[in-house]
Amino acid sequence: MPSGTLLYAQSGGVTAVINATASAVIQTARKRKVKVLAARDGILGVLREQLIDTSKESIADIRALAHTPGGAFGSCRLKLKSLEEDRAKYERLIDVFRAHDVRWFLYNGGNDSADTALKVSRLAAEYDYPLHCIGVPKTIDNDLALTDCSPGFGSAAKYTAVSVREAALDVAAMAETSTKVFIYEAMGRHAGWLAASAGLAGEGPDQAPHLILLPERTFDEADFLAKAKSTVERVGYCVVVASEGIRDADGRFIADAGGRTDSFGHKQLGGVASHLAGRVQDTLGYKVHWALPDYLQRSARHLASRTDLEHAQAVGTAAVEYALDGMNAMMPVIVRTADAPYAWKVEAAPLSKIANKEKTLPAGFIRRDGYGITAKARAYLGPLIHGEAPPPYGADGLPRYVTLKNVAVPALLAPWHE
Amino acid sequence: MPSGTLLYAQSGGVTAVINATASAVIQTARKRKVKVLAARDGILGVLREQLIDTSKESIADIRALAHTPGGAFGSCRLKLKSLEEDRAKYERLIDVFRAHDVRWFLYNGGNDSADTALKVSRLAAEYDYPLHCIGVPKTIDNDLALTDCSPGFGSAAKYTAVSVREAALDVAAMAETSTKVFIYEAMGRHAGWLAASAGLAGEGPDQAPHLILLPERTFDEADFLAKAKSTVERVGYCVVVASEGIRDADGRFIADAGGRTDSFGHKQLGGVASHLAGRVQDTLGYKVHWALPDYLQRSARHLASRTDLEHAQAVGTAAVEYALDGMNAMMPVIVRTADAPYAWKVEAAPLSKIANKEKTLPAGFIRRDGYGITAKARAYLGPLIHGEAPPPYGADGLPRYVTLKNVAVPALLAPWHE
């Protein structure tokens, strides 16, 4: 049994399959006889020395993580700044690692987390503390550099494509006397990957979604409204998928129209879909409906992509192997070796080439008119939603999601003051 | 082969399983060697003499209807008024029936449709036209009288409970540094059945959903905000499920706060969840997120309840049998014969006892504090989400939903002027 502890932490927004990565990490480490601690609420739990002893969990519960959405140990939104600005925090991390004999640190997150893992690894070297830092990819935004895709994205993409296809059937059935324009708001503040994946729901100019609004293209309201109108006149209705990150020519987020006030004099929270719905109704006079799935799109484990699940498990397994085999400042990434039939493998990539980068939709994925996706995009996106991996359901008709015991490891250091 | 035609029409908002009813209607009628026409866009298609010849569809496609959401022939929102006020329309219906030898009329809808079917049956009798009118129950609102539940509701309820359970896991994982209050808006303008069904996602004071806002109870903002605050302080986060139909003490719909204007000076469409989110953020200062699934909740065939699907098929089959056996002005309803294990049967009930009635949540289903459901509600709701009935998926990772050919029957009458 190797001496030392492996510490696993989740970071940033959770996904339908990040716990599948955690499950693979813990199972692989157990096979290698390595003790695994998990940080409560991500890096915050390291700073606070709130660690969880995963050896207290049954193997059945660890396996059940693979079909449970959310973040089993808690995650957090906490971006560490530069080593200079946040030195005290980085040093505290090393102190906690040292106190608990952490030799392997696995940080499961997106761009920011890759950056944090890289900095931690540099500081450890500076202090001569023997630590192997491995980033583990995860984000529904699919904006991580180098990796062909990010675990979590495929399931959110499948949710998006299926939901848009289903809602479009509803709209089509009712359009003659009811809603003519339906707007679905997809997550993606800077990159349009999820909105683009809605394009898989249909093909050709008359199939929904008819208009996809991507943050990679400037939003032109007049042009959008004209296209919505001509679609309604041609098809009978219009299904729009809008990325939350679209901006106008002045660079203003449409979602931040801001300062809305309702009749009670209260500020109103907005969003892209609600704003566009108002504009369609006011200018075109159509009945309009809109959906904002919000967290539903990133927690819909019931509709996970099997491909995505397999990616999530594979990067978890590889991350443990990389760490125990002595790699440092690396991340297992997904490499596509063929589109059709889809084939992929996991390879190691340096965190320095991933940290703080952001991958947006390539121009070649966006239809010339800006409102749809190309065959190239379909070839890329298609395989990522392939296959189903439903969770087991209980006799009560609900998925059997597991809740871990999350037994705390006693703190050894003085409390940390934020 | 009985002489005459059976006409089937869908009415009002569609559901995840209304096509399963259509599938059962057509299959049962085919077995009895009866010709089935379907009205395009519901009763509007009858008025316009836009009828579809279902004999042109393959048996495989008719079977596939059972796993396809939306309304395969189109539905409509068109409430006929009294026989006096809308006499010309009722007479037109009889004219179209006569022209196409329609002897059996099956109208698949909610309260209003039951009323229409009843009136049509009365007018036919008045004109000595031999017609058997059968209402077929359907509505995600579950507000139909007499029947134990309405086909379509169970699947929407399952979608609601599963989605809230999944989103709650997301919120729980992130609450320490991110969203503390999450608000899910459920359909149900007058009855809180869907919001109540979210209660199946958890049990006890600390499990999500923590607060359910029902239209059957007056919304008291100060009390709601105090409860949200105490929940966050106790649990770390608060998941709220709000029915779109909640009203304040003056009877005003919270969703109709109305008159919102954004910073561009445009009117903003609102909703209950967006309004409540603004109030929580402004008064409690918590980070808040909200979801509005809108049509997704009534078209999510991928997450249908098997029980609901079986109900939908059974009422379709029974409706054809009732009609062909000579019943008139009746509706097949679901009768519950036992809670645990759940048992049910279909019985005939007179449309006169169903038309224009609205079934709201019984007081005994609502927790004393007004923000949750009772054991009695769980016993009622639980069985309705039992069992899964996923659609087949294609190699592309998407459900294989069918699109019918919908071949038009040539019109025999002069065009109708609305």
TrEMBL record, chains A, B:
Example of a GO cellular component annotation carried by this entry: cytoplasm
Site positions for Important for catalytic activity: 138
Binding site for diphosphate: 13
Residues reported to bind Mg(2+): 111
Catalytic activity: beta-D-fructose 6-phosphate + diphosphate = beta-D-fructose 1,6-bisphosphate + phosphate + H(+)
InterPro entries per UniProt: ATP_PFK, PFKA, Phosphofructokinase_dom, PKF_sf, PPi-PFK
Keywords, ordered alphabetically: Cytoplasm, Glycolysis, Kinase, Magnesium, Metal-binding, Transferase
Binding site for substrate: 139-141, 187-189, 244, 295-298
Main localisation: cytoplasm
Similarity annotation: Belongs to the phosphofructokinase type A (PFKA) family. PPi-dependent PFK group II subfamily. Clade 'B2' sub-subfamily.
NCBIfam families per UniProt: PRK14072.1
Protein name: Pyrophosphate--fructose 6-phosphate 1-phosphotransferase
Source taxonomy: Bacteria, Pseudomonadati, Pseudomonadota, Gammaproteobacteria, Lysobacterales
Chain's gene name: pfp
